[in-house]
Design a protein that fits this description.
Helix content is 25%, strand content 32%. The protein is an alpha+beta fold and 212 residues long.
């Protein structure tokens, strides 16, 4: 699969039954609720602005069509939130989420969320300039009505078009299995305002059944 096909495939199979209101995300297809304690919704314009000016890695193995197509084909998050901590704009931890029908990510295979997580890790170097990272075989953690696994930490640098400044950040990928759906979560933060694993665990624990 080439990069363009990969990105276009990620624009399909997304849940259409997500309700965002006040401080709550209702994921109707998996009968789940996420309570956003100490988090707030980001305007999707922030994502669009980032992608429009972000400098993607120059991967010469891809065709010019693929390299040029990243910016226009990268899928927009269905849910984009930031940590409320009073830091200057741009330094808050960010979480981007996508809820997919499982078959969209696995096809006819029986891939587990660990394999899906490793697959996500495999593609990341085409989108960010990794500094320290070794693809991990994440441990699966079981919850009441779902299970999930988390990648190791990925440190990377980035810059924007027409700007010589190079900044650094960290990414963690989390994959959740809910029967026929997979929730992909990309967690970004910076050293000066990190999202600790304890705080991330608290956010994960906020995912509850709708009827609770």
């Amino acid at each position: 699969m080439n990069l363009t096909d990969f990105l276009i495939s990620r624009q399909h199979g997304l849940s259409e039954n997500i309700v965002v209101e006040n401080e709550t995300v209702l994921l109707k297809d998996i009968n789940a609720v996420i309570e956003l304690h100490h988090w707030s919704f980001c305007d999707i314009k922030r994502f669009n602005d980032f992608v429009s000016t972000y400098t993607f890695p120059k991967n010469e193995e891809f065709s010019k069509k693929d390299r040029d197509g990243i910016r226009q084909n990268i899928p927009r998050p269905q849910i984009l939130i930031k940590k409320q901590d009073g830091t200057p704009r741009g330094n808050n931890p960010i979480i981007a989420m996508y809820l997919y029908q499982k078959a969209q990510l696995t096809g006819d295979t029986l891939l587990h969320i660990r394999s899906i997580n490793k697959f996500e890790q495999m593609w990341i170097p085409y989108f960010v300039n990794l500094q320290t990272f070794q693809r991990s075989n994440p441990r699966i953690i079981k919850k009441e009505f779902y299970e999930y696994c988390q990648s190791s930490e990925m440190e990377f640098t980035y810059k924007f078009l027409y700007d010589s400044k190079v900044d650094s950040a960290r990414l963690r990928i989390i994959t959740f299995a809910f029967n026929n759906y997979i929730l992909l979560m990309y967690v970004f933060d910076k050293n000066e305002n990190e999202l600790t694993q304890e705080d991330l665990n608290l956010f994960i624990d906020s995912i509850k059944k709708q009827n609770e």
